[in-house]
Amino acid sequence: QLQLVESGGGLVQPGGSLRLSCAASGFSLKFYAIGWFRQAPGKEREGVSCITNSGDSTNYAESVKGRFTISRDNAKNTVYLQMNSLKSEDPAVYYCAASVFGTCAQDSPYDYWGQGTQVTVSS
């Protein structure tokens, strides 16, 4: 069964950090670009970050630049999203997705999606 599984979400105070993981099973992530997305209640899903299949290019939403870092470890078949300086506007369900196109082009379709992990920021 081909699937992506996110983990690492939870409750953190403003200014705190979390590291999300996106692990693949049933297929190798090394051929895929991986995107992180988030969706807060009542809001549309938004792209947060993306990393190409080679790992040599990344991009970030303006709202998270300088605070979030995406990385990948193909040996572990896992992609990470390090989130620092979390703010009140960051809480959402965070999803990872894999694109066989391998790039982070804005219109690249995503082939596999995880089930999401909840991030809550509260004092």
Descriptive notes:
- By secondary structure, the protein is an all-beta fold.
- Helices cover 0% and strands 48% of the residues.
- The protein has no helices and 11 strands.
- The strands form 2 sheets. Strands 2, 4, 5, 6, 9, 10 and 11 form a 7-stranded mixed sheet that branches. A 4-stranded antiparallel sheet has the order 1-3-8-7, with no helix packed on it.
- The N and C termini lie far apart (39 Å).
- The model has no long low-confidence stretch (mean pLDDT 95).
| Annotation field: number of helices | 0
* Unreliably modeled segments: none
Annotation, overall tally of beta strands? 11
Structural class computed from helices and strand pairing: mainly beta
Output the radius of gyration.
13 Å
- Distance between termini? 39 Å
Q: What does the largest sheet look like?
A: 7 strands, mixed
**Fraction of residues in H or I helices:** under 10%
Shape: globular
Q: What's the mean pLDDT score?
A: 95
Strand content: over 45%
Give the ordered list of helices and strands.
EEEEEEEEEEE
Task: Report a brief summary of the structure.
This protein is an all-beta fold and 123 residues long. It has strands at residues 3-7, 10-12, 18-25, 33-39, 46-51, 58-60, 68-73, 78-83, 92-99, 112-113, 117-121. Strands 2, 4, 5, 6, 9, 10 and 11 form a seven-stranded mixed beta sheet that branches.
Topology, element by element:
Elements (H helix, E strand, L loop, with lengths): L2 E5 L2 E3 L5 E8 L7 E7 L6 E6 L6 E3 L7 E6 L4 E6 L8 E8 L12 E2 L3 E5 L2
Parallel strand pairs: 2-11
Antiparallel strand pairs: 1-3, 3-8, 4-5, 4-9, 5-6, 7-8, 9-10, 9-11
